[in-house]
Amino acid sequence: MKAVLIISHGSRIVETKEEIRRLIVQLRHLTEIPLLEYAFLEIESPSIPEGIADCVRKGATEIILLLNFLNAGHHVDKDIPRIIAGSQILFPSVKIHITAPLGQHSAIPRLFAEILLPFTPAT
Q1: Where along the chain do its domains lie?
Q2: 2-119 classified as CATH 3.30.160.340
Q3: H, E, C per residue of the chain
């Protein structure tokens, strides 16, 4: 079974975790992904290894890690791959894929343009 684990940074601000929970609820309604969970790089729980282990316990044989990070950087390029390598050792039969950061998606310029539309002077 395929699972999607959305990875966010984590924050001490309680509302941040609630935003992620609401996102997961919305995605569960919009998609047919059988197992959709979330995890955090730091500060908040569940951690990435805990999220991966939870997906495996629930029957995942393939996990897509959707990076809820806007751009590449140390966390995306170094920290998360290192963490994933450790989980891959624990679960060698589980295929783990990591998406590119959100900012690299082709829809981002259109999304930003839509956000900026109310601030754009009429021509």
Answers
A1: 2-119
A2: no
A3: CEEEEEEECCCCCHHHHHHHHHHHHHHHHHCCCCEEEEEECCCCCCEHHHHHHHHHHCCCCEEEEEECCCCCCHHHHHHHHHHHHHHHHHCCCCEEEECCCHHHCCCHHHHHHHHHHHHCCCC
- The answer to whether the peptide bond before residue 46 is cis (omega within 30 degrees of 0) is yes
Amino acid found at 84: I
State the pLDDT confidence band at 121, using cuts at 50, 70 and 90. Answer: confident
What does the alpha-carbon distance between residue 77 and residue 101 come to, in Å, rounded to a whole number?
A: 10
Tell me the average pLDDT across 57-65: 98
